[in-house]
Amino acid sequence: MKEYDEATLKKVQQTELGILKDFIKVCDENNLTWFGDAGSGIGALRHKGFIPWDDDIDVVLPRKDFNKMIEVFKRDYSDKYTIANVETMENYPLMTTRLMLKGTKFVEEPLKNLKCELGIFLDIYPYDNIPDSDEELKKQAKRAWFWSKVLILRHVAFPVLPYKGFKAKLTHAVTGLIHAGMVVFRISHKWIAGKCLEIANMYNDKETKRMAFLFDTNPYWHIMVKEEAFPLQIYDFEDVKMPLPACEDKKLRKMYGNYMELPPVEKRKNHYPYKLEFND
């Protein structure tokens, strides 16, 4: 797979930083809570900006603030940005949301066959209330994992796997059959997405001690105790300020181990997308 040259990667990063600045402006003007996450959290803590080889920005909003942010961008920025999520795009297969710059294209290899217009984006995670009971959380997490994978397979016959060889070929034979079956029997995107959203919102009408995004590869990666997360701490990220949860170090170590140590050079991967175009 082709990798970025330095100039192209820098241009992707600067385009994404411009999207982030508009996002921050909307959040500030509407008093919305947001913070960095995952690779962007590592970038802020370790590099005071992008991880040098990274090509995306990850941010989080609690569901209520997320809904308001979407409303504002649809109302006031529809000439500049497109929103991609399961509610706005019929063929979008992920429970994350993308704020995409119009006039650009950014299509990852696994998504190249989607019937979606995908552009350079800010990756946004809505965090939902989750139950205080670990037993109830386990049930919710299992459902979230299952239905988010069904959603992906509805649109992607051969998803990216963390392994190769015979096991990968066998898995892709199964996923291809599942995908074909859902297409033949007309299992709708809307129905599957509705299941996912129903699971996400199960506890949003209740006061709970924790919040999370449960639809990642591991549904337990993004769990946060609210009293450990707030007040947010402010860090430099390139030429802007990025809030991070007070428990970000604990969260990142759970996801990545000793993230402050640079990975070996052979693991510092970035992959040029299947299709990439910049606007003027």
TrEMBL record:
One of the GO biological process terms: glycoprotein metabolic process
Alphabetical list of InterPro entries matching this protein: LicD/FKTN/FKRP_NTP_transf, LPS_cholinephosphotransferase
One family name in Pfam for this protein: LicD
Domain LicD/FKTN/FKRP nucleotidyltransferase: 27-257
PANTHER family: LIPOPOLYSACCHARIDE CHOLINEPHOSPHOTRANSFERASE LICD (PTHR43404:SF2)
Protein name as annotated: LPS biosynthesis protein
Organism (species): Lachnospira eligens
